[in-house]
Amino acid sequence: MKKIKAAIIGCGVISEVYLDSIRENFQILDIVACSDLxxxxxxSTAQKYGIRAAAYEEILKEPEIEMVINLTSxxxxxxxxxxxxxxxxxxxxxxxxxxxxxxxxxxxQIAEKNKVRLGCAPDTFLGGGIQTAKYALEKGMIGIPxxxxxxLSRDYRVYGENLPHLFRHGGSVLxxxxxxxxxxxxxxxxxVKSVMxxxxxxxxxxxxxxxxxxxxxxxxxxxxxxxxxxxxxYGNGTLVTLHMNxxxxxDETFHLELYGDRGILRLGxxxxxxxxxxxxxxxxxxxxxxxxxxxxxxxRGLGAAEMAWxxxxxxxxxxxxxxxxxxxxxxxxxxxxxxxxxxxQMTTTFRKPEILPEGYIGKGFWEPEEETALL
Length: 375
Ligand SMILES: NC(=O)c1ccc[n+]([C@@H]2O[C@H](COP(=O)([O-])OP(=O)(O)OC[C@H]3O[C@@H](n4cnc5c(N)ncnc54)[C@H](O)[C@@H]3O)[C@@H](O)[C@H]2O)c1
Fold this sequence. Notes:
CATH superfamily of the largest domain: Dihydrodipicolinate Reductase, domain 2
Structural class: alpha/beta
CATH class of the largest domain: Alpha Beta
Shape: globular
Number of helices: 11
CATH architecture of the largest domain: 2-Layer Sandwich
Bound molecules: nicotinamide-adenine-dinucleotide
Number of domains: 2
Largest sheet: 9 strands, mixed
Strand order of the largest sheet: 16-15-14-13-7-12-11-8-17
């Protein structure tokens, strides 16, 4: 079996999750090197996983490395992804694809021009929970999904005291968490046509009060609205209400629901690979749907592995650049609409990703391995 040799750029918190998960779940990927501006982090990752620590430029010049997995901070996704694409590497990037829409469009063009793949997180939409919901929807179990609901509340006054990028442009709640919800619905419903929204900031500047934080005493400006309501009109006719509030209580609440003319579909947390999926039919209580698809546990790297299998099979990959660019445009459109108080008309589109084959559940002994579902 041919493996795709890949390198990781960005040896931060999520890199260990990726490296452990790829080793555990995905034989198609052979991670051979890692890089980071922070040499201590880079060397400790290299040592822990027995891979090479190398400068990014060195990785880009290495012909045997075919893919770069970009796990750096959102603000540098664009320049680092661009560099790799220009060196003829396939790139799988953590969310979001870029901070600005024009940057995302440019990355898509460079990938096309250089005939290399560009894929993007979140890949949780390929997990057992959302794939099962897609299966139920596509089998007509709730009929026509006329409307839907996306809602999330968190408290970034707590999270942000240790992760101040959550207050800044590109890291605020609609980018950092909205992408999970918007990608889940993109994979189920397809592209959005237009967007209308309202938003507000609950504070202009956040002063860090947590004495254990290394940012204690700093005053961080809030770049983006942190309370947002929006209506998303999908091309298939579904009208979705979106609500995000990152200035509520720390105990997270979420809703991800579709209301059809023959039933209601409720999804689990789109920031996980599993999650409870339920269907409610007339005059019945909501009933849990048995998960029909694999990857129900931590499977970070699933999107990169699916892209690697797609390269080997010469077919489109599911966590596509077009879908990632579209999801970024929804966020961009929401902020434009808040500012102009007009309806934002979307300019990008994408092909809804195919559902994964059902039935590949578990690590395999009697049953086929989950990774077989990606072949
Ligand atoms: N932490 C999580 O739970 C989590 C979950 C899902 C997705 N993500 C996403 O993963 C990405 C990374 O998040 P993280 O939590 O690991 O962040 P992190 O800050 O822990 O790590 C980012 C790493 O990138 C490195 N870096 C920054 N600029 C660089 C450059 N120009 N060249 C080389 N290295 C550079 C930093 O030195 C740092 O080690 C983000 O896009 C984030 O949205 C994080």
